[in-house]
Amino acid sequence: MPEIRVLIVDDDPLVRSALSHFVSRDAEIEVIGEAESGLEAIAFVEQDIPDVIMMDVQMPEMNGIEATAAIAQRWPDIRILAVTTLEGSDTVLPMLSAGASGYMLKDSSAESIRAGVREVYNGASSLSPRIASMLVKHVRETESAAARQTDQLAPLTEREREVLHCLTQGMSNAEIARAIIVSEGTVKAHLGSIMSKWQVRDRVQIIVAAAHAGLVNFG
What we know:
single chain; Rossmann fold; globular
């Protein structure tokens, strides 16, 4: 019985068909609809709430960044996974800042795309080291030093700080578990604790919050 209800948003019908074929091979995933623009995506969500939206960036009428921001504000429980050919900072950063929980390229393997859907659904999306670094630098550059000093976050335990450091290196839960020699379940528990303390919803927003507060730095 499928558990993850997915909406695919892309202006290319062949891409929508291919993505639908890829993700539907996972027994836990059901594609409940398709849209060819951000406006169509919003109209769909107003009628039927998906768990995950696979969102392209460049589209007519309303692009993926605008649609992600609008959906994240109105329906914060929906997870958005960017799936695009674009990998420059001018698209990655605005997309993540708008509220996307993950970012994948269309040339990723079918299994990677399915894994990406499952990860964002479970609130455990991971970013590549390059994209994590890009995000932190972007946030820090757009925040003044004075603003960072006044941005107070609840303190973390020593182990939670270790998990945060690994997270900002783009590690997956399994990789973090190996790095600090704990179980993957323990890593998930630490991440959940950080999210609760800082009142954020996923791994991407943990990185954003830490960067805002000046807690992480990529030289």
